Amino acid sequence: MKKFVGPFAVVIYDRKKDSIVAVRDPLGDRTLFYSHQKNALLIASEERALLQDPDVNDQLDETRIATYFAFEPPPFDGSTFFKDIKELLPGHLISFENGHLRVRQYFNYEFAYDSKLQSDEEYAEQYRDLFQQSVQSRLRCIGRPAVMMSGGLDSTSVAAVAARNMNDRLKAVSWRFKELASCDEGVFINKMIEKYEIDPFQFCADNEWPLRNYENWPINPSTPVSNSFRMLKERAFRTASESGSRIVLVGTASDKLYSGTKYWLTDLLHYGNFRQAIRDTVWHVTRKGIRNFFQSTAFKGSLILKRFSPNWKPPAPDWLTDYARNLLPERVNWPVQNKDPIFRSRHNHILGLFTAHNFSVEIPHASRCGVDVRDPYRDRRLVDFMLSIPLNQLYRRGVYKLVLPNAMLNILPEEIRTRTTNISLKPLHSLGFRKESERIRRLLTRTDRVWPKYVSSDWLELTPMRNRSSMGKMVDWLCISFDEWMHRFGRTIICNEAA
User: Fold this and answer.
1) Three-state SS at 214
2) From the centroid of its chain, how far is CA 499?
3) How far apart are the C-alpha atoms of 43 and 49, rounded to whole Å?
């Protein structure tokens, strides 16, 4: 299993021994859930499949509900939203023989920087080789694959490498904006289409704001909706399917590979790059001011708080009720106990259960639209490499993702490779909350609401709807999604006596 580099979930039945072994890939991009009932073991790729068995109770697990409202990853014991169902963790296997169940970890990452490479060019070359292998291996399919392509560095890199490795023309699915011009990346999308003669499949997304026609949203019976742009992604999946593609390559996981960059100064000092540390510090002080620099995480967080407080943990979110806070499980580092703040931050983002959940939760939605989602940035070979390189390859003097644009030299159009501005969907998100303000108010105040058990209604009511912060809007979304999931599928909660 250690030789497999792609996502997988495997179940093997030994007829002679009457035993079962189930294995999940180290990154957790394919899911396995199980329920141990009496002398039987039930296994499926989704929780809702297990709920079809009459012996599996659909009673909800309030610990998982609390982590949902706290924006925390699923509990590390494999708990799901259902008490009778457990999730097999990434890099773990489960064996079942003679009625005995055993779960163990078969894969763990070794964390250490690789000092063999010396120059930016060497790092870029190694990244380019691994990235090309990753993209090539995900192009295998019947028919022509498509790439979900915005004009950003991540998705265009996938599209460029894919186009260079195909005998046929690549298809690209993109959303465009007319009214919300600040969200549109058409200039960069067109550069890619012209350079690689890509077949474009585009749609106008001005009306795909959060909560529009919410009563018709597809909701997964296994979990509440976590993405407020659900319908935007659904439309992209459907567009790819209608074009004849069954495989969609995405670049959504790229950002996770560049986590931990706020510790750039600690990283330089730790590995003896004192001259560069001084030069980069002067650069930051000159542009941001000495006061802002000394208050930044690069200085205070890396050198003082995090270095000497490895066990420091953030407090529970202040919007949670006391009941929900008491339900939260003890926080641990995943996938290993690592006291180094740099490694801990990078590992939790790249290998964490939150990242695995956010990727795997898209699979049922994509499957319903008739496509399979593949992300080259979730290739284990590339992940191994990114965990082994120093932070100065991820961030340097205001430039993020340094190794990626270096690797894409002469591959991406220069306007994309060297762009310094990012375009976000925040205006579309804000538009949705303005247009749907009455619906939001109605959903949050419904008489049969469940969320006040876990989220403080005083906290939400403290700020008027029109003045909500980004975090306030996210909490609104969690409450609405959870209640809709509960009521649409007739879920009920039995109080957790321990809490």
Assistant:
1) helix
2) 30
3) 9
Closest CA to 352 of 373, 378, 388, 324: 378
Token digits of residue 323: 């009941």
- For residues 379 and 6, is the Cβ–Cβ distance under 8 A? yes
DSSP 407-472: HTTTTS-HHHHT------SHHHHHHHHHHTHHHHHHHHT-TT--GGGTB-HHHHHTS-GGG--HHH
For tokens 């006391």, the residue is 322
DSSP 128-159: HHHHHHHHHHT--SSS--EEE--SSHHHHHHH
**C-alpha–C-alpha distance, residues 422 and 184, integer Å:** 11
Give the number of other CB atoms < 10 A from CB of residue 154.
21
Q: What is the DSSP string of 30-60?
A: S--EEEEETTEEEEESSHHHHTTSTTS---B
**H or E stretch including 100?**
strand 100-105
Show Cβ contacts of residue 445 under 8 Å, excluding neighbours closer than 6 positions.
none
- Please state, in angstroms and rounded to a whole number, the distance separating the CA atoms of residues 270 and 13: 49
Q: What is the C-alpha to C-alpha distance for residues 199 and 493, in angstroms, rounded to an integer?
A: 49
Decide: 59 and 79 in contact? Cβ < 8 Å.
no
Interval 56-74: pLDDT, tens = 999 999 999 999 999 988 8
Given a contact cutoff of 8 angstroms between Cβ atoms, the answer to whether 168 and 176 are in contact is no
The pairing of beta strand 9-14 with beta strand 86-87: unpaired
pLDDT in tens, 212-221: 998 888 888 9
User: Do 291 and 417 contact (CB within 8 A), yes or no?
Assistant: no
Q: Tell me which of 59-73, 282-296, 337-351 is least confident.
A: 337-351
> Structure pTM?
0.90
* Cα distance from N-terminal residue to C-terminal residue, the chain: 40
